[in-house]
Amino acid sequence: MANVTEFFGSMVFDDKKMQECLPRATYKTLKKTVKNGEPLDISVANAVANAMKEWAVEMGCTHYTHWFQPMTGVTAEKHDSFIYPTDDGRIIMEFSGKELIKGEPDASSFPSGGIRATFEARGYTTWDPTSPAFIRDKTLYIPTAFCSYTGEVLDKKTPLLRSMERLSSVAVQLLHLLGKTDVTRVTTTVGPEQEYFLIDKKMYDKRPDLIYTGRTLFGSPAPKGQELEDHYFGSIKTRVSAFMNDLDEELWKLGVFAKTKHNEVAPSQHELAPIFETSNIATDHNELTMEVMKKVAERHGLVCLLHEKPFAGVNGSGKHNNWSISTNTGENLLEPGKQPENNLQFQLFLSAVVKAVHEYQDLLRLTVASAGNDHRLGANEAPPAIISMYLGDDLGDLVNAIVNGTHYKGKDKAEMLTGVDVLPDFKKDTSDRNRTSPFAFTGNKFEFRALGSSLNIACPNYMLNTMVAQELSEFYDELKNASDLETALKDLIRKTLTEHRNIIFNGDNYSEEWVDEAKKRGLCNYRSLPEAMSHYVDKKNIDLFVNNGIVTEAELRARYEIELEHYAKQIRIEALTMIDMAEKNITPAVSAFVNELTNTALAKKSLSESVSVYTELSLVEYLSEKLESFVKKTAELEEAVNEASQYRFDSLILAKYYREKVFTLMGELRTLGDAMEKKTSAKYWPYPSYGELLFGV
Length: 697
Ligand code: ADP
Ligand code: MG
Known about the structure:
It contains 22 helices and 20 strands. It has about 700 residues and is an alpha+beta fold. The chain folds into 3 domains: about 5-155, Glutamine synthetase, N-terminal domain (Ubiquitin-like (UB roll), Roll); about 160-415 and about 425-550, 2-Layer Sandwich (Creatine Kinase, Chain A, domain 2), CATH 3.30.590; about 565-695, Up-down Bundle (Four Helix Bundle (Hemerythrin (Met), subunit A)), CATH 1.20.120. The strands form 4 sheets. Strands 10, 11, 12, 13, 14, 15, 16, 19 and 20 form a 9-stranded mixed β-sheet that branches. Helix 3 packs across helix 4. The longest helix has about 55 residues, at about 555-605. The structure holds adenosine-5'-diphosphate and magnesium ion. Magnesium ion (MG) binds near residues 193, 320 and 447.
């Protein structure tokens, strides 16, 4: 491997390359238009497009693609070659400013939530100059936003960009009021920690459930799971390590700051954490990371599973969204500093986040809701479905002091004495970690931990940005005419924390007591996607997005429809896959095994009446009974899926039906299937076992 510092970002058309390739004046105009969000002059676009193409062709590219994030949950791309015919029947490589700025993929086959009819097919992708273009597979990838012909937003990037703008403008206003007039821009930053599973491709290929749904729908537990806690941070196996090294190299070439990697709790589970970037680039890079993980895994004969719950009985995968706000002058606005008790600016921003999370806890809950994540939240392996905040003892004490008007004495960082002379002593953090909290303060940022592993982080982040922007703008309105700013600030902070401290909880989020306590506090506890999603279009939430200019009411309603439809479709696919596996393979396999047992018993008896057929008989009886229930349950599930069509006119009712009826039957069918797997000869069982899947790499 060459020197990392040399090849880092080699596949990215970054700012440095742009500066090298473009005439100075063009470069400066581009930077200015991007910074001020002005429309791009076509001559500038032409120059940039040409420079990009020259670089890409030199790197061996033949194609370019607008890369966008429609509401499907995965990214989309349509490749065009650079070729352009000349009069003499030959070609040249061309790429115009118009092609860079605007693409026209047919939008009719992307989910639009009924916002538009299918015959209104036209859609546009527009270049996002704030996220650099990059090369993959001999193709120049251009990050873009996606909207319809009539201008409706059809993607996840546009609301994110708008929310970043909105938060910046209200935060700057507020900071100017506080005297920080040198601040001209405020940015939200994100570092997403990504969990995933790696399993052997040969095993994967034999599991239709993994192929169609990303998770196992049947599977009796292996004798060993994660109970010995020997996988977490354990020594990394050679094959996995080779994958990780390859992955790092690919990501570094693409300019992704891959930083930390380790084994996670479940067998075959791992994690990758990057260094944080702006929300927009972090989102693009996280999407890219997930895609590259899958591709690199293939090269190693592995499959990377990003599903939230690929295996029952062991932990599923999530994503921790580390989020903070900082100024263009280099200040982290969530940094408490040495004396948080005297840092009114910090207290103000902290209050805004506390108020936002309290008032819009339903939005935070529903933004992480998915069919996959329904398996995790509240299952004692991920935060509960109840959204609360952890501030730690220090800040918790500060909040109490502010609310009660008492004196706050901060804890000094204690010296950590290792008690061994050769080991250096070090300063201990003032607060411990709380792994069970969905939204934890971790020093100078918040860690939103309820995200599912496959989620596009644009959604939680635009919600977070928007709700905090809303609170900041309310704060600004309250403070802007104050005659005594300091008193007004202190009053506002005390009032806000007093009204919203109910969202703060520093205890064990996995405990039963918390569920009761949260109920008393009036916090929401939405256990599944349909329950949570029904609040998407509550008036206060529509107002939030519309008033902050993030999406229109029609667009919001469309998103709500899309999420519900997607959920119903996913469970339907899972149910159909189960039925298929049951009818085509499991039932015939068990029946064949029973047949063999029966023949063995008959043969034994014909040999001699006195030979024991206890084994065969008891197994035949057990399996025949289970198989009968299994076959009947399969038919019941099939009927339930067929009946779903009567609810198709209301997405919420349909989603609820899938959750309550279909999903429940799937669980019952699985229990029967898994019981039979335990007793059926491995020679007959048609699918690789949990042991082979989880311990096979
Ligand atoms: P911890 O060990 O508490 O999880 P780390 O410092 O290792 O914290 O950071 C975890 C993640 O948080 C990393 O992806 C890191 O880049 C990210 N992070 C750190 N500071 C910030 C910040 N100011 N804004 C957003 N993310 C951050
Ligand atoms: Mg973490």
